[in-house]
């Protein structure tokens, strides 16, 4: 990217941020989460190109709405519509979500009330690989360590995909579905049907989605094909407006080809069961009791032969396959109280997990191998979060949680040479404390500001304890040597809303003690090796957005996101940080039709830490900036039928995201790291139906 272009981008970004900070006065935002969700806007008549916060640090959107770029194939893809989010790309699907340059279990990912961690030691099947956004009713994001209600960690933020409770005033049936077709063989089908009476309901939802390999702006084919399906069912008992008992069952599977990996995913099997109970309407201070339990299992197969044709690639190794499985069982009980100016939620949660694997050379030979359990996990936590309405337009929100986390090493051998494991049978136990406090102030009915500080302690996860080849210097391995990570972060922001302008700005600054960092090294005959250790780091950044309605049917908008990180131990950049990014949007909305455009501008990233990163990826080299244009349009035939269409990368640009895997030599990519290019010009058409 040229210097004038970078200067123009940064000047534009700065103007958006300054405008958002100086505009004054916002309608009163809700402070209890139920109020936030109730007040969240619905945008049924537009294509989603960006999302604004509904209250301090909280974003809510409907993942069933059409979005641009082309509707998401996984949870990480949809999160990119929220400023500050990115994804570590590796081809067509299953990118790993990144918020403010932080990824992995620094993001607490909750799906329908439960945890669904993946099983691949290299996160080929990260947790959001098992999420089909359009089968959920609501996506809720809280940025930073500013809630303790949904589990430990969450230093970067909390992401929840939720389904609504279906209540019926009279016997009836509701249904909605969609069909999508697009370039590179993309086609999706989604269907959700609910039937019920005043005392209960049944819901069935499912989807199927697939795409062929895409071509980049130069017309080069990028190995990236995938196919997925999901099916979920729920039975609910609702004897009154304040009572719910629901049983849910779900399953899914898929496959994905990866240009940036030595193996592909030939199976992404998901099996889920959950039970939840809610009771409200009590007399007195107690307002609600809720309890839930879940069991999720991910059964993942990766190999180098099912989705790869040796006749179309370079030298292939002997056929190899690995089957990994992770089962997670957990639950949560919480009670809410409301007394005059004070609301509070207190509860406990727990989670147990088991990881096992098997592998073998030869096609399908792994099926004859016995399972080998290599890790077990346990977590028990107690939490409380409250909201004190201190006065007119003033609120203090605070929370704390205490967790006991354990990990047990069940590997008899470890390392490439299969040497005896010195930590076999050992259990690590950590007591983790997290807390936050935030003040929100409404200066008028238009303007609100907030400031909060949070602290989060995070147990090293499966990928940090078991995936690296080596632990910190002087330790037996990663399991024995990697320390828990502690984040202390300050978040501040303002939000302004009027009839024509909606503007917001947020900033954060944090210190991360014992940041868990991966270092890669070329090991000659042994290939690339990884070492994990702890360093001290600092992070800061900002996001801002503005939406302006100059006339009744026009809407102009812009967002900007910037993240910065530094390794304090040696003064070098923190790896895997997202570059400065701006999105400019324009739309016109008629009673029945709408059109819009999205200009995405990404700055160059020259603050890199080569050969450092995380379990998924590493910094390769500086990247140039780029800009892409997308256009969309829609027509509403009735309240029940809507057609939307779009063209992404209109000018067929050739570009690659900074957070990216290097192309695999199996597909002819050179030995020197080359990032995987994004799709060239592509078009899509989507039909939404309701009954």
Brief sketch in words of this structure:
This protein is 6% helix and 53% strand. With 691 residues, the chain is mainly beta.
Question: Can you give a write-up of this model?
Answer:
It is a single chain. The protein is mainly beta and 691 residues long. Helices cover 6% and strands 53% of the residues. The strands form five sheets. It has a 22-stranded antiparallel beta barrel. The longest helix has 20 residues. It starts with a helix and ends with a strand. The N terminus is likely disordered.
Helices and strands in order, then pairings?
Blueprint: H1 3-22, H2 33-39, E1 53-55, E2 58-61, H3 75-79, E3 85-88, E4 96-99, E5 102-103, E6 107-111, E7 138-143, E8 157-162, E9 172-182, E10 186-197, E11 200-211, E12 214-215, E13 221-222, E14 226-237, E15 243-256, E16 264-280, E17 286-303, E18 320-339, E19 342-361, E20 372-391, E21 394-409, E22 413-414, E23 419-420, E24 427-442, E25 447-458, H4 462-466, H5 478-481, E26 485-497, E27 501-522, E28 528-548, E29 554-567, E30 572-573, E31 581-589, E32 593-602, E33 612-613, E34 626-638, E35 641-648, E36 682-690
Parallel strand pairs: 6-8
Antiparallel strand pairs: 1-2, 2-7, 3-4, 4-5, 7-8, 9-10, 9-36, 10-11, 11-14, 12-13, 14-15, 15-16, 16-17, 17-18, 18-19, 19-20, 20-21, 21-24, 22-23, 24-25, 25-26, 26-27, 27-28, 27-33, 28-29, 29-30, 29-31, 31-32, 32-34, 34-35, 35-36
């Amino acid at each position: 990217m040229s210097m004038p272009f970078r200067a123009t981008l940064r000047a534009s970004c700065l103007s958006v941020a300054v405008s958002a900070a100086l505009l004054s006065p916002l309608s009163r935002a809700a402070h209890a989460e139920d109020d936030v969700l109730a007040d969240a806007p619905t945008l049924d008549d537009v294509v989603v190109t960006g999302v604004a916060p509904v209250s301090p640090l909280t974003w809510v959107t409907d993942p069933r709405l059409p979005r641009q770029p082309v509707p998401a194939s996984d949870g990480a893809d949809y999160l990119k519509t929220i400023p500050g989010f990115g994804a570590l790309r590796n081809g067509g699907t299953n990118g790993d979500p990144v918020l403010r340059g932080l990824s992995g279990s620094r993001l607490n990912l909750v799906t329908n009330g439960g945890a669904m961690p993946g099983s691949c030691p290299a996160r080929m099947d990260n947790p959001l690989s098992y999420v089909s956004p359009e089968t959920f009713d609501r996506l809720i994001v809280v940025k930073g360590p500013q809630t303790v209600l949904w589990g430990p960690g969450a230093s970067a933020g909390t992401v929840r995909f939720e389904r609504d409770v279906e209540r019926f005033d009279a016997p009836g049936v509701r249904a909605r579905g969609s069909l999508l077709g697009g370039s590179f063989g993309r086609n999706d089908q989604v269907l959700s049907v609910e039937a019920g009476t005043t005392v209960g309901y049944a819901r069935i939802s499912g989807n199927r989605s697939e795409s062929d390999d895409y071509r980049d702006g130069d017309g080069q084919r990028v190995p990236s094909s995938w196919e997925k399906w999901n099916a979920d069912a729920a039975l609910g008992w609702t004897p009154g407006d304040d009572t719910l008992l629901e049983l849910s069952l779900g399953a899914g599977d898929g496959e994905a080809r990866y240009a940036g990996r030595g193996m592909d995913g030939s199976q992404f099997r998901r099996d889920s069961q959950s039970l939840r109970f809610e009771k409200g309407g009590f007399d007195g201070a107690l307002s609600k009791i809720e309890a839930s339990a879940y069991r999720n299992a991910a059964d993942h197969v990766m190999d180098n032969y099912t989705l790869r044709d040796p006749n179309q690639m370079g030298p292939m190794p002997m056929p190899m396959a690995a089957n990994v499985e992770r089962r997670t069982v957990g639950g949560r009980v919480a009670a809410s109280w409301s007394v005059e100016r004070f609301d509070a939620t207190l509860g406990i949660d727990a989670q147990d997990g088991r990881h096992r694997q098997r592998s073998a050379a030869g096609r399908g030979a792994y099926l004859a191998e016995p399972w080998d359990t290599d890790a077990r996990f346990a977590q028990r936590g107690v939490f409380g979060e409250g909201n004190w309405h201190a006065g007119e337009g003033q609120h203090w929100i605070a929370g704390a949680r205490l967790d006991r986390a354990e990990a047990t090493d069940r590997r008899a051998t470890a390392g490439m040479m299969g040497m005896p494991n010195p930590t076999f049978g050992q259990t690590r136990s950590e007591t983790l404390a997290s807390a936050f406090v935030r003040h929100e102030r409404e200066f008028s009915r238009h303007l609100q500001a907030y400031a909060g500080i949070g602290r989060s302690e995070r147990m090293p996860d499966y990928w940090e304890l078991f995936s690296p080849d080596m632990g910190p210097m002087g330790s037996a391995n990663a399991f024995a040597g990697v320390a828990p990570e502690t984040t202390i972060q300050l978040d501040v922001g303002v939000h302004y809303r009027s009839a024509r302008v909606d503007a917001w700005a947020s900033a954060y600054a944090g210190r991360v003690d014992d940041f868990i960092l991966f270092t890669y090294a070329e090991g000659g005959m042994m290939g690339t090796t990884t070492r994990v250790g702890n360093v001290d780091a600092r992070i800061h950044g900002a996001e801002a957005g503005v939406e302006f309605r100059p006339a009744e049917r026009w809407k102009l908008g812009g967002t900007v996101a910037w993240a910065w990180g530094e390794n304090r131990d040696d003064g070098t950049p923190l790896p895997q940080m997202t570059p400065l990014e701006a999105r400019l949007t324009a739309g016109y909305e008629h009673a029945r039709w709408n059109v819009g455009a999205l200009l995405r501008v990404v700055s160059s990233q020259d603050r890199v830490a080569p050969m450092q990163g995380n379990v998924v990826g590493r910094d390769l080299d500086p990247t140039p900036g780029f800009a892409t244009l997308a256009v969309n349009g829609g027509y509403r035939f009735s309240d029940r039928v809507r057609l939307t269409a779009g063209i992404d990368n209109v000018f067929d640009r050739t570009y690659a995201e900074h957070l990216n895997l290097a192309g695999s030599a199996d597909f002819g990519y050179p030995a020197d790291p080359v990032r995987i290019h994004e799709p060239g010009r592509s078009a899509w058409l989507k039909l939404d139906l309701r009954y």
